[in-house]
Amino acid sequence: MMEPSINLLDSFIDHWKGITNYYIETTDESRPVKQTDIPWRLKQMLDILVYEEKQQEVEETGACMEYLLQHKILETLCTLGKAQYPPGMSQQVLVFFSKVLAQIQKPVLHLINVHRPIQKLIRLCGLPNSNTEKEEAQFMFFVCSRVKKDPYVLNYILETAKDGNPQRSSSVSEDSTEESFSEVSSPASSPSPSTPSSPPQNSSQPDIIDILTQLMKSQKSRVALRAMESVMLLTSIAQEDTAKLLAEETPLCALLSQRLCELYCTIPTTLHPADLHIIHQQWLTGIVQPQLLQMSEAGVLVHTALLSCTVRHIHSSALLQELVHFLLGNDTHHEQQTDTPPHTHLLRYHLIEHCDHISDEISITTLRMFEELLKRPDRNILNSLVLRNLEGRSYRLPGSGEDRPGAECDALEESDELEEDPFFTDSEFSGSESLLSLSRDERRSSTRTQIAETVNSFLCLVPQEAKTTQHVQGAGYDTYVHDALKSLKECTAVSLEWGWPDNPKPIDAHSSSVHFYEGHFLKVLFDRASRILEQPYELNLQVTSVLSRLAVFPHPHLHEYLLDPYINLSPGARSLFSTLVRVIGELMQRIQHIPNFTQRLILVRRQLMGLEEETLVDHATLLKGVIVLEEFCKELAAIAFVKLPMGDQEHLAAFSP
Q1: C-alpha pair distances (Å), 491 with each of 376, 389, 496, 637
Q2: CA angle, 207 as apex, 206 and 212 as ends, to 5°?
Q3: What b/e sequence results for 242-258 when a residue is b if at least 16 CB atoms lie within 10 Å of its CB, and e otherwise?
Q4: pLDDT-based confidence at residue 4 (cuts at 50, 70, 90)
Q5: What does the CA dihedral 88, 92, 97, 100 come to, rounded to 10 degrees?
Q6: Is 95 helix (H, G, I), strand (E, B) or coil?
Q7: CA distances (Å), 567 to each of 402, 526, 570, 591, in order?
Q8: How confident is the model at residue 263, as a pLDDT?
Q9: How much is the pTM?
Q10: How big is the chain by its Cα radius of gyration, in Å?
Q11: Which among 617, 407, 391, 619 is positioned nearest to 518, based on CA atoms?
């Protein structure tokens, strides 16, 4: 990229003239394009366009983009690519067009001097014996990506008038691009390129679906896969008018039905109806499960990533239910700490164990898979992983809290005692980190007391000398409130039909003999959280992301166990808050042995934010862990804040997106 002081337009014109001069001066027509400076000049032109766009206001068109449009540069490149002059030029043109579509953010496909050459370049794709299938598939993918982003431009790609009726153009011939090469220095005759046009229809030409159909038949698997991904982008467009256009003006429906027929015809006629379910299970247990349980770490990694993608893209409730049953089983009883296969579900056990794998990559990928599971609308996921172990609330000491008369006063007394703790001094609440500041009288009378105390408890959990928020602009707790509110709305909408109680189940006073076990999944997550000062930064981010996802669900037991710092835990039990308190205790001891701790911490934070150049810093793993810990506490505080009782929703008004 050139220096900003250089005139961008002059540089852009110089590179374009360098390309056009090649055709004027060259005498060797057989010289491959890669042996010329054309690829380099095209890259420079692209870089200039991208840089210029970043410097412009939203509604402005930069001078270089205006020049490209006025001089029909895309038209000219399309012509040169069609002519394959110099040899290999079509590949360079496809790459340039793909990168323009991928990197230029402003809508451009509605402009005549953009969509017209793109239409023509589309028609050059999918031809028999093509040597540029890879570039064609990539170009088509980015065209479909822009259509997915701005569905209205499909009219222009399909050359369909806005009223849906086909039109023929009498003013633009197929060979009009030949003229544009001679118009490089005389744009005055060009139509205005910055205004949208009503696209014409040329029904004799193959459309985008025809081209994708041909690419899907490629012998190169990656080309065929890319073409299928492009079709998926088009079929996932939600706008009704665009979907209607695809259905009525393209052979998309025929393509999909043909593919379904092909798959249907592959079903063996000897198959017994009762065997259909068994065959589906054979794929899961016969192929997927062995790949996830194999000894090769590389194999486990790639198949776990594939499983995560599968979970993310499943939309069928029946298929999701089948997959959840395969991954997690159907156990509903409380887990025991001694449960191991065959006394527990084999795959579930090993997948959870993989969250604490010796390979950090496998741990991160498996945690990501569980996070995807927690986003799916199936109540059995949470029941299997967490809720069945919290059903009896045996994590709480019987007879404590709201189960006794005068519980509200007890809760206040508990909070008063905690405020004397070094981690909960009054000075911690006086700064900008306090979300909810209430006087003592207000706290005694307010229905928000418990959540107010919870929010402040998480915010001041990290000691002052280990905080960096006040030293970095834009790093306050409020950055998490919007995301927390959005996640809460998503989780609430998903769980509405699951019949969750509004209030915690009363504790049985005679259940003191029940030993509480949080379950395999939470045990591994808490174990990982307890090692936050020793683990890689990326792993810590994924662990805290899964815990945050769990905390945002509106189940009263899950909320109490993960977000209430004041519950009296039963003997041997631990909660998320108690786990974090132990981490803070360890941190306070280790801080004493690190000179200039706060300064080092601020430096690492600035490096992570891209404000400082990456350099080697002693104790980097611990310092990054402290930063994740601080951010995690702010995120938990924001989650608790947005889960205020519905009667107090006015306090969220200032934070609503």
Answers
A1: 10, 20, 9, 17
A2: 100
A3: bbebbeebbbbeebeee
A4: very low
A5: 180
A6: helix
A7: 10, 17, 9, 29
A8: 77
A9: 0.60
A10: 31
A11: 391
Q: Check residue 334 and report its DSSP letter.
A: P
Tell me the β-bridge partners of 73.
none
Residue 166, strand partner residues = 160
Mean pLDDT for the stretch of residues 8-19: 94
In contact, 573 and 393? CB cutoff 8 Å: no
Which tokens is 498 given? Answer: 């699951």
**Per-residue model confidence (pLDDT) at position 475:** 65
Instruction: Write down the pLDDT at residue 264.
Output: 75
Distances (CA, A) of 443 to 417, 420, 453, 486, 648: 15, 17, 9, 28, 14
| Angle, vertex CA 532, rays to CA 528 and CA 538, nearest 5 | 90
Evaluated on CA atoms 167, 168, 170, 176, the torsion sign reads positive
Find the Cα–Cα–Cα–Cα dihedral 75, 77, 82, 88, rounded to 10°: -170
**What single letter denotes the amino acid at residue 333?**
H
The two three-digit tokens of residue 166, written as one number: 């086909």
State mean pLDDT over 28-44: 92
As a whole number of angstroms, the longest Cα–Cα distance in the chain is 98
CB 73 within 8 A of CB 16: yes
Q: How confident is the model at residue 260 (pLDDT cuts 50, 70, 90)?
A: confident
Q: Express each pLDDT in 112-148 by its tens digit.
A: 999 999 999 999 999 988 999 999 999 999 999 999 9
